[in-house]
Amino acid sequence: MSDACGGTTDEADSADEHDADAGTGTTTCGATTDGGTAAEAAETDAGSTGSSACGASSSGASDSDSTSACGGGASSDTEEKVEATVDDFDADPGRLVAVGLGPGHAEGMTARAKSSLADAEHIVGYTTYIDLIPDEITEQADELYDTPMCGEVSRTEEAIDRALAGHDVAIVGSGDPNVYALAGLALEILESKGATASMVDFEVVPGVPAAQSCGARLGAPLVNDSVSVSLSDHLTPMEEIESRLHAVAGEGFTITIYNPWSRKRRENWETACEILREHRPDDTPVGIVHGAGRDDEAVEITTLGELESYGETDLVDMTTTVVVGNEDTYVWDGRMVTPRGYETKYDY
Amino acid sequence: MSDACGGTTDEADSADEHDADAGTGTTTCGATTDGGTAAEAAETDAGSTGSSACGASSSGASDSDSTSACGGGASSDTEEKVEATVDDFDADPGRLVAVGLGPGHAEGMTARAKSSLADAEHIVGYTTYIDLIPDEITEQADELYDTPMCGEVSRTEEAIDRALAGHDVAIVGSGDPNVYALAGLALEILESKGATASMVDFEVVPGVPAAQSCGARLGAPLVNDSVSVSLSDHLTPMEEIESRLHAVAGEGFTITIYNPWSRKRRENWETACEILREHRPDDTPVGIVHGAGRDDEAVEITTLGELESYGETDLVDMTTTVVVGNEDTYVWDGRMVTPRGYETKYDY
After folding, report:
1. What pLDDT, on the 0 to 100 scale, is given for residue B24?
2. Do the beta carbons of residue A19 and residue A319 sit within 8 Å?
3. Does the beta-carbon distance from B153 to A342 stay under 8 Å?
4. Which of A135, A232, A268, A341 would bridge with B235, disulfide CB 3.0–4.6 Å?
């Protein structure tokens, strides 16, 4: 099978994960830009033990290989702050579109996503996602602005400021902009600036979410009522996550788990596995898809009883999506299958 | 906004809806084919009050406007039955791919969906979905096999039989093949025939589901943990649906409702609205997207307190998707916004 899934990374949590790698100290996170309209200094408040080093780069489209080094740039602050307001811009605003790239390879993009990017003068996004966009599109753009794995608030603000300054801007992410992603943040920041969504003709271009990409990779595990839960407690208290898991695990939902594990929150993984096992038998099929569409892609179908032990393996990290079957889900010929219920009505 | 959402129709329920229009009698539902390998007579068991008239047509790709009349064709039976088994085919099997078309217009298809269809010798699907595929792709296919709004079991079997007979076959649906759709049914029927998924290199090509297409149309209503529930009790008992709604409405999930209403099950809609109101305030924002991507597309943002009254309007039927906000969801500038939680950590 050539399918790939991705778009699994809730970036707030990627910063989290990145932190763990970077240690527990606080380092400066700045942004450098050439040609940007309102590059703000930024530092991500990415968790309780410190913030990660990060940077931003902006470049004309001719410089398509624009990854940045950490810590460069202007002044820093303890939190990402939105500073410019709508009154700071004199120009007629341009347009702002939030584009979902889908699974993480050009093949998974919709035609509309491609044309939206082709129409944009500036394309803004996390470096990894910018790199996913086909060269023929990025080469057409007047500017690319990308930052590494942190700073989604300042990056979103950057996109908005560029639109308010008169440019047609696309802000991109993998998966769908409505799934643990930036569509909401863009609207929140627009409001905080005293702007409106209408002012920049704000549009969301949907993409294939990780649940669907990974579901396809696993077979047909999500064919009935289904739920998505993120295990990151960076932006949602763990008690709420636990309560949600209890509520849905006792019903017939299949459950897609985003952001399942990071070094800083092993406990969330353990707790989630325990809650699921309280409600579902140990032989419930579970699909694990790691690093989909990347060189280290790996897929495994296991059981709920074995799931927790995968937390300490390379298979489960922030780039992994986990699909937990319901009581009817079974494994056949290497695929997970959740019946829709046809077998109760039809003879086959 | 030019977005469109679709892919909202659970076909088992479309047949349901179609029934209501067709009356309560039982009429013959047959299939005619020219050039097909194993067209089965079929009658949909679409509900308790009768079955709808339906037919199937198969044509060479040169006859691209192939809609069929009802009731034509061969013998009928009281239920759709899978008849041919793997032993009935001598050829080396071809490939079978289940392709999600996304929102319901060519713009919403992924590049991979297009190339998968272009590679297929036969394309099989519900007439409305076949019509969504760009002409340059359908014209390349050796054969199109389409049936109107019923018979998804026999149509899926038709696709499988053609693959087992040696053809490369794509079976298509709107939205994503894992969302109330045919990926699971294809695997179930393969198994029932004594075939395997590997034998036909079975693959699922994901598409943008209706929840995401409609979420994009509404703004950013689905940015946090979310659940999909179908209100059709054709394949799931209503008690289970009610139990699921109670479980999730009491938690912080946004809720996407598929198949919200049909004439035959007004009560399900009323019951669902009552359950949601037991758990959430009347001023909870609710987005309604009807007939997305079609001529009669309509979008409205209302409140939970008003939702039930829409059941008797043209806005809510089987082609409608409803998105119910959580306790944090608000309406701003004509958009629904569900905060991800950044506002608890960042200053903007």
Report:
1. 31
2. no
3. yes
4. A341
